[in-house]
């Protein structure tokens, strides 16, 4: 859905945060309701993050009739109340962006080179995309998840300086993440997609579709 409507990674991760936090407030949620909760989380996130968010009728359409517009609007209100209107969290991907920017400021890497920066960023976010499908990812704070992912692409000394986290803070997450890294390494390298209405220097920020479930 995110790729179809050219939505940004931050939108996807906001929706993921809303979904997870909402589910933590609920008990005995019926499986049939999960799609409604998910599409509503994306509806809320896209209105916050996107300049031109998809219309509610478009999001209802992609559910193939499973979710009506009225149901999405009703669920939106339920979710907003459950989330206590806390709609601007620092997501995993926003932490990741911060660390990369800090690394560039320190001039530790070649991340200032646009093409390398885009490819590296996409590689790290794809790793995070895969990791958050595992419920155990909820055991770690977003900043720790992002820093642990960064550790698999750059030296720990740099990660420590840009994140302020110690090895003791990160060791558990880095080790937990290692099998996901091995899986990602077995797939083709990054090929940045082109989108008609997206500039080349922003294309790495678009959330693209990969069949991550088949990797697990």
UniProtKB/TrEMBL annotation:
Keyword presence, Nucleus: yes
Range of residues in the leader sequence: none
Domain Cyclin-like, residue spans: 1-81
Domain Cyclin C-terminal: from-to ranges: 90-212
TM annotation in the entry: none
BP-aspect Gene Ontology terms: cell division
Pfam families (alphabetical): Cyclin_C, Cyclin_N
Alphabetical UniProt keywords: Cell cycle, Cell division, Cyclin, Nucleus, Phosphoprotein
Keyword DNA-binding: no
Gene3D superfamilies hit by this protein: Cyclin-like
SMART domains to which the protein is assigned, alphabetical: CYCLIN (SM00385), Cyclin_C (SM01332)
Location within or outside the cell: Nucleus
Entry's Gene Ontology cellular component terms: nucleus
Main localization of the protein described in the UniProt heading: nucleus
PANTHER family, per database record: CYCLINS
Family membership: Belongs to the cyclin family. Cyclin E subfamily.
Name under which the protein is recorded: Cyclin E2
